[in-house]
Structure to design on (183 residues):
């Protein structure tokens, strides 16, 4: 099993954190892991993406041009990464700010309205965990116990009191993701 993932959006959306939690969770599950972030110089609002590879075999290179799964959180990332999903792969996107929805017919497309859900919950900071939950519903490549360990490892100790909140957001993401037919 090898899963090659790109997570892309704006800085401040928790893109890199989501990738880091997946990476730590993979390590806890004894998988080979690669985590390669890429971001602009802006603190918030600039582009950010992270490539995560989880495999039960050695990873030869962290540099990829095609992905099994793309998790897209803004239009700029949709424009850049929709075509990089391998045929038969998966594209997951949050609809907030997306004006041109994905149209490929050779991949599975899933929508998760995580931004809206985070707003309803009054917890904007768990947006990325809602998205992560949606991904894990579609591709349960790491188990939830290891996600908990990944949260503990990636969050500073002063934020450990928020782990339960993050886990609830993951569960909610699993409930609200749905497959869409391309236009």
């Amino acid at each position: 099993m090898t899963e090659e993932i790109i997570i892309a959006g704006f800085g401040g959306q928790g893109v890199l954190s989501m990738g880091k939690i997946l990476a730590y969770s993979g390590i806890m599950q004894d998988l080979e892991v690669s985590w390669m972030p890429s971001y602009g110089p802006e603190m918030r609002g600039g582009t950010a993406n992270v490539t995560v590879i989880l495999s039960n075999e050695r990873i030869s290179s962290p540099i990829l041009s095609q992905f099994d799964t793309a998790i897209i959180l803004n239009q700029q990332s949709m424009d850049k990464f929709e075509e990089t999903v391998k045929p038969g792969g998966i594209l997951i996107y949050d609809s907030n700010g997306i004006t041109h929805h994905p149209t490929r017919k050779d991949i599975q497309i899933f929508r998760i309205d995580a931004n809206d859900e985070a707003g309803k919950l009054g917890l904007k900071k768990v947006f990325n965990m809602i998205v992560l939950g949606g991904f894990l519903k579609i591709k349960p490549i790491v188990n939830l116990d290891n996600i908990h360990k990944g949260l503990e490892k990636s969050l500073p100790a002063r934020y450990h009191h928020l782990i339960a909140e993050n886990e609830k957001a993951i569960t909610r993401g699993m409930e609200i993701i749905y497959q869409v037919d391309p236009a």
